[in-house]
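Database export, one record per block. Field names are fixed; values are copied verbatim from the stored entry.
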Amino acid sequence: MQVPGLFEYERATDVENAIALLDRLGDEARIVAGGHSLLPMMKLRLANPEYLIDINDLAGELGGITVEADAVRIGAMVRHRQILESDDLARLLPIFRDAERVIADPVVRNRGTIGGSLCQADPAEDLTTVCTVVGAVCVIRGPTGVREVPMDEFLVGPYETAVRGNEILTEVSIPRVPSGSSAYTKVERRVGDWAIAAAGAAVRLDGDRIGAARLGLTAVVPAADRLADIGDVLRGQPADEENFRRAGELAGQACEPVTDSRGTAAYKRHLAEELTVRSLRTAVDRARTGRTES
């Protein structure tokens, strides 16, 4: 089956109108922006909403990247291409440019949005890991007001988020970390493919030691609590190759990949280990030198 089921179409005029439509139409309504996640699922009848609410006219409200003294705010309608091309974002949070370079292809990057990526909550999706690693907070609006949900709580499970049926994700807020930097590395079968495995790291340095570290893994079924424990292990340790390798070994043990057409579980576990080392090494190098790219 490659044809979506029948649905009705509404075009929201602003955020409040989108929320009102969601509230009125109920659980059978879905938001569509870029559509590169939802529409393929509709064609396969994995998703079969009765209503689509198009929010492409909301780019003026939800489409900006704002740098503040203590945070960077990314509107939910910001396209992948905007993230890739933002020099401010690359300077402060280079992990985003790392990830966007290996997300899909120009067609998808021109239309797909960060909000759509996060709300899809695909376990193999890159920006979900990126936002988790940098400690992002998701700003959600609904009929009763605004609430802020940390990424650790935003992801309820595979393809499930904390966004309720009558709510909309409006922006992602990321704290700025002095003396810190980040990196993302990925292995894929071909350019633009889903990850076989990927790893992200964000670090803050205290001199030559690691003041704080957060790690993330993509497509290898990681245990979030065990990844958090690795950050605790690294805290206060020298930012050197020995500790990067130690963290990589722990990351390999903190995931439960499955064997499929992309590779064996053992191969994916090896990738998780090696990519964690590379991400940590790059993030620390960037934090030391002030460079945003390697």
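Remark 1: The chain has a mean pLDDT of 95.
Remark 2: Residues 265-289 form the longest helix (25 residues).
End of record.
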